[in-house]
Amino acid sequence: MWERHEIETFLMLAGDxxxxxxxxxxxxxxSRVSQTIKKLERRIGAPLFERTSRQVRLTPLGRQxxxxxxxxxxxxxxxxxxxxxxxxxxxxxxxxGYSTPWAGELLxxxxxxxxxxxxxxxxxxxxxQPGDPFGGLxxxxxxxxxxxxxxxxxxxxxxxxxxxxxxxxxxxxxxxxAERASVSLEDLAEVPLVTLxxxxxxxxxxYHYPRRTPGGKPIPRGxxxxxxxxVLSYVATGRGVTFAAARAVHHxxxxxxxxxxxxxxxxxxxxxxxxxARETARTRAFVKTVLDVRWGYLTGFAGRL
Length: 305
Hints:
- The chain is elongated.
- It is of the alpha/beta class.
- Helix 1 packs across helix 2, helix 1 crosses helix 4 and helix 5 crosses helix 10.
- It has ten helices and twelve strands.
- It has three domains: about 80 residues, Arc Repressor Mutant, subunit A, CATH 1.10.10; about 80 residues, 3-Layer(aba) Sandwich (D-Maltodextrin-Binding Protein, domain 2); about 100 residues, 3-Layer(aba) Sandwich (D-Maltodextrin-Binding Protein, domain 2).
Protein backbone atom coordinates (compact mmCIF):
# COMPACT_ATOMS: atom_id res chain seq x y z
CA MET A 1 0.00 0.00 0.00
CA TRP A 2 1.34 3.40 -0.95
CA GLU A 3 1.41 6.19 1.61
CA ARG A 4 -0.31 9.50 0.82
CA HIS A 5 2.99 11.41 0.70
CA GLU A 6 4.37 8.87 -1.77
CA ILE A 7 1.43 9.34 -4.13
CA GLU A 8 1.72 13.11 -3.78
CA THR A 9 5.44 12.99 -4.58
CA PHE A 10 4.92 10.78 -7.62
CA LEU A 11 2.11 12.89 -9.09
CA MET A 12 3.94 16.14 -8.51
CA LEU A 13 7.09 14.84 -10.18
CA ALA A 14 4.96 13.47 -13.03
CA GLY A 15 3.74 17.02 -13.59
CA ASP A 16 7.01 18.88 -12.96
CA UNK A 17 9.44 16.39 -14.55
CA UNK A 18 12.12 18.08 -12.44
CA UNK A 19 13.39 16.65 -9.16
CA UNK A 20 14.60 19.99 -7.82
CA UNK A 21 11.32 21.76 -8.53
CA UNK A 22 9.27 18.97 -6.96
CA UNK A 23 11.52 18.95 -3.90
CA UNK A 24 11.13 22.71 -3.47
CA UNK A 25 7.34 22.55 -3.77
CA UNK A 26 7.14 19.72 -1.23
CA UNK A 27 9.79 21.30 1.02
CA UNK A 28 11.93 18.18 0.81
CA UNK A 29 15.48 17.52 -0.31
CA UNK A 30 16.11 16.33 -3.85
CA SER A 31 17.61 13.12 -2.50
CA ARG A 32 14.46 12.45 -0.46
CA VAL A 33 12.30 12.79 -3.58
CA SER A 34 14.66 10.49 -5.49
CA GLN A 35 14.58 7.91 -2.69
CA THR A 36 10.78 7.96 -2.61
CA ILE A 37 10.52 7.40 -6.37
CA LYS A 38 13.07 4.57 -6.29
CA LYS A 39 11.11 2.95 -3.47
CA LEU A 40 7.91 3.10 -5.54
CA GLU A 41 9.67 1.69 -8.58
CA ARG A 42 10.92 -1.26 -6.53
CA ARG A 43 7.36 -1.97 -5.41
CA ILE A 44 6.04 -1.72 -8.96
CA GLY A 45 8.90 -3.75 -10.37
CA ALA A 46 9.68 -1.39 -13.24
CA PRO A 47 10.92 2.18 -13.82
CA LEU A 48 8.36 4.98 -13.67
CA PHE A 49 10.72 7.69 -14.92
CA GLU A 50 13.56 7.87 -17.40
CA ARG A 51 16.38 9.98 -15.95
CA THR A 52 19.25 11.54 -17.86
CA SER A 53 21.60 14.40 -17.05
CA ARG A 54 19.41 16.70 -19.14
CA GLN A 55 15.83 15.67 -18.51
CA VAL A 56 13.32 13.53 -16.66
CA ARG A 57 10.55 11.76 -18.57
CA LEU A 58 7.74 9.42 -17.63
CA THR A 59 7.99 5.89 -18.92
CA PRO A 60 4.85 4.50 -20.60
CA LEU A 61 4.12 2.67 -17.35
CA GLY A 62 4.65 5.87 -15.39
CA ARG A 63 2.26 7.75 -17.67
CA GLN A 64 -0.35 5.01 -17.25
CA UNK A 65 -0.01 5.19 -13.48
CA UNK A 66 -0.22 9.00 -13.41
CA UNK A 67 -3.31 8.99 -15.62
CA UNK A 68 -4.97 6.46 -13.33
CA UNK A 69 -4.02 8.03 -10.01
CA UNK A 70 -4.80 11.66 -10.91
CA UNK A 71 -8.61 11.37 -11.03
CA UNK A 72 -8.66 9.14 -7.93
CA UNK A 73 -6.70 11.67 -5.88
CA UNK A 74 -8.91 14.49 -7.15
CA UNK A 75 -12.04 12.57 -6.13
CA UNK A 76 -10.55 11.91 -2.71
CA UNK A 77 -9.79 15.60 -2.24
CA UNK A 78 -13.33 16.50 -3.32
CA UNK A 79 -14.81 13.99 -0.87
CA UNK A 80 -12.78 15.41 2.02
CA UNK A 81 -13.71 18.98 1.05
CA UNK A 82 -17.40 18.08 0.73
CA UNK A 83 -17.38 16.40 4.14
CA UNK A 84 -15.81 19.49 5.70
CA UNK A 85 -18.40 21.73 4.03
CA UNK A 86 -21.24 19.48 5.15
CA UNK A 87 -19.94 19.62 8.72
CA UNK A 88 -20.02 23.40 8.83
CA UNK A 89 -23.02 23.83 6.50
CA UNK A 90 -23.27 25.85 3.28
CA UNK A 91 -21.52 29.12 4.10
CA UNK A 92 -19.49 31.86 2.45
CA UNK A 93 -20.36 33.64 -0.79
CA UNK A 94 -21.47 32.48 -4.21
CA UNK A 95 -21.18 34.50 -7.42
CA UNK A 96 -23.68 33.64 -10.15
CA GLY A 97 -23.90 35.11 -13.63
CA TYR A 98 -26.32 35.51 -16.52
CA SER A 99 -26.11 36.77 -20.09
CA THR A 100 -29.81 37.38 -20.79
CA PRO A 101 -32.47 39.24 -18.76
CA TRP A 102 -34.70 36.18 -18.45
CA ALA A 103 -31.83 34.10 -17.11
CA GLY A 104 -31.10 36.95 -14.69
CA GLU A 105 -34.68 36.88 -13.43
CA LEU A 106 -34.47 33.14 -12.86
CA LEU A 107 -31.16 33.44 -11.01
CA UNK A 108 -32.52 36.23 -8.83
CA UNK A 109 -35.45 34.04 -7.85
CA UNK A 110 -33.12 31.09 -7.26
CA UNK A 111 -30.82 33.27 -5.14
CA UNK A 112 -33.73 34.15 -2.86
CA UNK A 113 -34.73 30.51 -2.48
CA UNK A 114 -31.12 29.48 -1.90
CA UNK A 115 -30.61 32.08 0.82
CA UNK A 116 -33.78 30.88 2.55
CA UNK A 117 -32.34 27.36 2.60
CA UNK A 118 -28.79 28.41 3.46
CA UNK A 119 -28.93 31.73 5.33
CA UNK A 120 -25.19 31.71 6.05
CA UNK A 121 -24.32 31.87 2.35
CA UNK A 122 -24.61 35.16 0.44
CA UNK A 123 -25.37 35.07 -3.29
CA UNK A 124 -24.29 37.79 -5.71
CA UNK A 125 -25.90 37.98 -9.15
CA UNK A 126 -24.14 39.80 -11.98
CA UNK A 127 -24.35 40.13 -15.75
CA UNK A 128 -22.02 38.31 -18.13
CA GLN A 129 -21.17 40.16 -21.33
CA PRO A 130 -21.79 38.03 -24.44
CA GLY A 131 -18.36 38.90 -25.85
CA ASP A 132 -16.60 37.21 -22.88
CA PRO A 133 -18.81 34.24 -21.98
CA PHE A 134 -16.40 32.39 -19.65
CA GLY A 135 -14.16 35.15 -18.32
CA GLY A 136 -15.95 35.50 -14.99
CA LEU A 137 -15.85 31.75 -14.32
CA UNK A 138 -12.16 31.52 -15.13
CA UNK A 139 -11.19 34.62 -13.16
CA UNK A 140 -12.93 33.33 -10.04
CA UNK A 141 -15.50 36.13 -10.02
CA UNK A 142 -18.33 33.67 -10.69
CA UNK A 143 -19.01 30.19 -9.36
CA UNK A 144 -22.02 29.33 -11.54
CA UNK A 145 -23.68 30.91 -14.54
CA UNK A 146 -26.48 30.30 -17.01
CA UNK A 147 -25.22 30.48 -20.58
CA UNK A 148 -26.29 29.34 -24.00
CA UNK A 149 -25.13 25.98 -25.32
CA UNK A 150 -23.20 24.42 -26.95
CA UNK A 151 -20.27 24.70 -24.56
CA UNK A 152 -17.17 22.57 -25.08
CA UNK A 153 -14.48 23.89 -22.72
CA UNK A 154 -12.03 21.54 -21.01
CA UNK A 155 -12.09 23.46 -17.72
CA UNK A 156 -15.83 24.13 -17.50
CA UNK A 157 -18.53 21.64 -16.53
CA UNK A 158 -21.66 21.74 -18.65
CA UNK A 159 -24.62 21.15 -16.34
CA UNK A 160 -28.27 20.52 -17.15
CA UNK A 161 -30.29 22.55 -19.63
CA UNK A 162 -32.54 24.95 -17.72
CA UNK A 163 -34.80 26.01 -20.57
CA UNK A 164 -34.91 26.29 -24.37
CA UNK A 165 -36.04 29.30 -26.39
CA UNK A 166 -37.25 29.51 -30.00
CA UNK A 167 -35.28 31.84 -32.23
CA UNK A 168 -36.21 35.00 -34.06
CA UNK A 169 -34.44 37.06 -36.70
CA UNK A 170 -33.83 40.69 -35.74
CA UNK A 171 -34.05 43.01 -38.75
CA UNK A 172 -34.28 46.78 -39.34
CA UNK A 173 -37.86 48.00 -39.44
CA UNK A 174 -37.33 49.08 -43.06
CA UNK A 175 -36.01 45.65 -44.16
CA UNK A 176 -38.23 43.61 -46.54
CA UNK A 177 -38.23 40.68 -44.07
CA ALA A 178 -39.75 42.93 -41.39
CA GLU A 179 -43.13 42.59 -43.11
CA ARG A 180 -43.09 38.79 -42.91
CA ALA A 181 -45.01 36.79 -40.29
CA SER A 182 -42.10 34.32 -40.14
CA VAL A 183 -38.79 33.61 -41.84
CA SER A 184 -36.71 30.59 -42.83
CA LEU A 185 -32.98 30.02 -42.61
CA GLU A 186 -32.97 30.03 -46.41
CA ASP A 187 -34.04 33.69 -46.28
CA LEU A 188 -30.57 34.54 -44.93
CA ALA A 189 -28.80 33.83 -48.22
CA GLU A 190 -26.64 36.85 -49.06
CA VAL A 191 -27.95 38.80 -46.03
CA PRO A 192 -25.09 40.09 -43.78
CA LEU A 193 -25.28 38.58 -40.31
CA VAL A 194 -24.20 40.70 -37.33
CA THR A 195 -22.30 38.46 -34.91
CA LEU A 196 -20.52 38.59 -31.57
CA UNK A 197 -16.88 39.60 -31.27
CA UNK A 198 -14.46 39.20 -28.38
CA UNK A 199 -13.68 35.90 -26.66
CA UNK A 200 -16.66 33.91 -27.97
CA UNK A 201 -15.34 30.49 -29.16
CA UNK A 202 -15.44 29.77 -32.87
CA UNK A 203 -17.61 26.67 -32.47
CA UNK A 204 -20.24 28.75 -30.65
CA UNK A 205 -20.21 31.45 -33.33
CA UNK A 206 -20.61 28.91 -36.11
CA TYR A 207 -23.53 27.26 -34.29
CA HIS A 208 -25.45 30.43 -33.46
CA TYR A 209 -24.44 32.36 -36.59
CA PRO A 210 -24.21 29.80 -39.40
CA ARG A 211 -22.10 30.54 -42.46
CA ARG A 212 -24.44 28.77 -44.88
CA THR A 213 -28.14 28.10 -45.20
CA PRO A 214 -29.36 24.48 -44.98
CA GLY A 215 -29.41 24.52 -48.79
CA GLY A 216 -25.73 25.50 -48.95
CA LYS A 217 -26.05 29.17 -49.87
CA PRO A 218 -23.50 31.48 -48.18
CA ILE A 219 -24.53 33.78 -45.34
CA PRO A 220 -22.05 36.68 -45.32
CA ARG A 221 -20.53 37.88 -42.07
CA GLY A 222 -21.45 41.40 -41.03
CA UNK A 223 -19.77 43.40 -38.23
CA UNK A 224 -19.10 41.85 -34.83
CA UNK A 225 -19.96 43.41 -31.47
CA UNK A 226 -19.00 42.69 -27.87
CA UNK A 227 -22.18 44.10 -26.29
CA UNK A 228 -25.76 43.19 -27.14
CA UNK A 229 -26.90 46.80 -27.42
CA UNK A 230 -24.18 47.34 -29.99
CA VAL A 231 -25.47 44.35 -31.97
CA LEU A 232 -28.95 45.89 -32.03
CA SER A 233 -27.55 49.26 -33.08
CA TYR A 234 -25.75 47.66 -36.01
CA VAL A 235 -29.03 46.02 -37.04
CA ALA A 236 -31.06 49.21 -36.62
CA THR A 237 -28.66 51.16 -38.84
CA GLY A 238 -28.82 48.61 -41.63
CA ARG A 239 -25.43 46.92 -41.14
CA GLY A 240 -27.07 43.49 -41.15
CA VAL A 241 -29.50 41.20 -39.32
CA THR A 242 -28.95 38.91 -36.33
CA PHE A 243 -30.31 35.98 -34.37
CA ALA A 244 -31.95 36.29 -30.96
CA ALA A 245 -34.20 34.33 -28.66
CA ALA A 246 -37.80 35.19 -29.54
CA ARG A 247 -38.32 36.17 -25.90
CA ALA A 248 -35.80 39.00 -26.32
CA VAL A 249 -38.47 41.21 -27.91
CA HIS A 250 -39.98 41.69 -24.43
CA HIS A 251 -36.67 43.00 -23.06
CA UNK A 252 -34.95 44.59 -26.06
CA UNK A 253 -37.83 45.72 -28.25
CA UNK A 254 -37.17 49.02 -30.06
CA UNK A 255 -39.08 51.10 -32.58
CA UNK A 256 -36.35 50.72 -35.21
CA UNK A 257 -36.04 46.91 -35.22
CA UNK A 258 -38.42 43.97 -35.65
CA UNK A 259 -38.21 40.42 -34.25
CA UNK A 260 -39.49 37.91 -36.84
CA UNK A 261 -39.98 34.28 -35.68
CA UNK A 262 -38.14 31.46 -37.46
CA UNK A 263 -39.98 28.42 -38.76
CA UNK A 264 -36.94 26.13 -38.95
CA UNK A 265 -34.07 27.42 -36.77
CA UNK A 266 -33.14 25.18 -33.83
CA UNK A 267 -34.05 26.43 -30.37
CA UNK A 268 -31.41 27.97 -28.12
CA UNK A 269 -30.63 25.83 -25.08
CA UNK A 270 -29.63 27.66 -21.90
CA UNK A 271 -27.89 25.68 -19.19
CA UNK A 272 -25.81 25.81 -16.05
CA UNK A 273 -22.03 26.10 -16.16
CA UNK A 274 -19.33 26.09 -13.51
CA UNK A 275 -15.52 25.69 -13.29
CA UNK A 276 -14.72 22.01 -12.98
CA ALA A 277 -11.80 22.55 -10.62
CA ARG A 278 -13.86 24.72 -8.24
CA GLU A 279 -16.99 22.59 -7.95
CA THR A 280 -18.12 22.46 -4.32
CA ALA A 281 -21.10 21.36 -2.25
CA ARG A 282 -22.15 25.02 -2.39
CA THR A 283 -22.13 24.92 -6.19
CA ARG A 284 -24.18 21.74 -6.31
CA ALA A 285 -26.68 23.09 -3.79
CA PHE A 286 -27.26 26.19 -5.91
CA VAL A 287 -27.63 24.16 -9.11
CA LYS A 288 -30.29 22.07 -7.37
CA THR A 289 -32.09 25.23 -6.25
CA VAL A 290 -32.16 26.60 -9.80
CA LEU A 291 -33.69 23.37 -11.06
CA ASP A 292 -36.23 23.41 -8.23
CA VAL A 293 -37.50 26.92 -8.99
CA ARG A 294 -37.26 27.03 -12.78
CA TRP A 295 -40.68 25.60 -13.61
CA GLY A 296 -42.50 28.06 -11.41
CA TYR A 297 -40.56 30.88 -13.04
CA LEU A 298 -41.17 29.65 -16.59
CA THR A 299 -44.88 29.13 -15.92
CA GLY A 300 -45.14 32.62 -14.50
CA PHE A 301 -43.36 34.12 -17.48
CA ALA A 302 -45.62 32.30 -19.94
CA GLY A 303 -48.61 33.77 -18.13
CA ARG A 304 -47.27 37.30 -18.72
CA LEU A 305 -47.05 36.89 -22.49
